[in-house]
Amino acid sequence: MPPPPCSLLLLLLLIAAVTVTATTMLIPGGILRTLGGTPSEKRFVQDTRTDVYRESTAFRWRLVTEPARICRKRWDRRTGGQARFCRREPKVVKEISRGVHLALRECQSQLRHERWNCTTVKSSMRRLLMRDTRESGLVDAFVAAGVVYALAEACAQGRLVDCRCRRPRLHPSPRRSCETFVDFGYHKSRTFLGRPRAGGDFRARILAHNYEAGRNAVRQNLERVCRCHGMSGTCSLRTCWLRLPPFSKVGRRLRGQLENAVRVSAGNTGKGFALQGPTPTRQDIVFSETSPDFCEADRRTGSLGTRGRLCERESSAPGGCQRLCCGRGQETRHMLISTACNCTFQYCCRVTCQTCWDTVEQSTCS
Q1: Per-residue pLDDT tens over the stretch 34-60
Q2: Model-level pTM?
Q3: Is the preceding omega at residue 349 within 30 degrees of 0, hence cis?
Q4: What is the pLDDT of residues 324-344, one digit of tens each?
Q5: 60 by DSSP, 3-state: which?
Q6: Residue 337's beta-bridge partner residues?
Q7: CA dihedral angle for residue 173, residue 178, residue 184, residue 185, rounded to 10 degrees
Q8: Half-sphere exposure of residue 93: CA atoms within 13 angstroms, side-chain side
Q9: Helix crossing, 80-88 with 178-193: angle to 10°?
Q10: Any signal peptide, and if so, which residues (predicted)?
Q11: CA 187, chain centre distance (Å)
């Protein structure tokens, strides 16, 4: 058989060179590189772990700003597990949405006198959640706590029927107590929001740690209730169980964690945190970036500023003008308001009231 012509060999070598040049190479460590054909072509480097964090960040701020629409098909930022969760457990997703609303209301109630008052303005919240500050960590903890609380409450009130405990060996009794309901909410929250992992992206570990801090805030604030049984109130036999506390109690605990948050940085090993202070526990909120002072509006950080906020003129406590207005001073107005007073009931059936006028002093930050 005669050897192939030189032109055919050159053609085969050219095809092989083009194939190798355009090949996409998967490099260990999760980095995907696509090499161009010439040195002048731009090289594209994509860290898959960073992409996962970006997707979780987009999912996170959408969950916070529009929780009722988190399972809409047009939102393509859900991970595979969250998409399956939305399809298989729509009733649980509905309670998760209710839990996020509950969490944000309580967050605003706890911080109503602070410069940053847990505002839910979309543009502000989106910018806030793009950074790992104390405030974004607190929002994440509140959201996780609200999800656990709402799911446990839904089980206790019968809105969710299948609330079996995930670990039957720890709760062998078929009787489902409130503790079992909280375990159910804890498990579903970890499935939907994510759980702490040793490896992975540093910012994703911060997010997962703060979610865990919120979940633990509910579990550690369960109230123990006991009832006595016996003749003439002797309490010879006592039955005790755990029940959910008011969510405001959970909110106060998380509010206290804001000032005690622990600053961390990325470690050299890619696992855990490099500490810049005390070792954070599972109940602590962690952060890696310095918070703005929230005195002035700043689109980059999501700060809305404090201009126009109501304050107490003579107070230096939280909510007082001295602290809230950042030294800019305040404007005080005297307003005349009307109220219904001296109401009487006339048979039958009418209530008549007089109109009373009061002068109210109102101060706002300049």
Answers
A1: 333 444 333 333 343 444 445 566 778
A2: 0.76
A3: yes
A4: 999 899 999 998 989 999 999
A5: helix
A6: 358
A7: -170
A8: 17
A9: 130
A10: 1-22
A11: 16
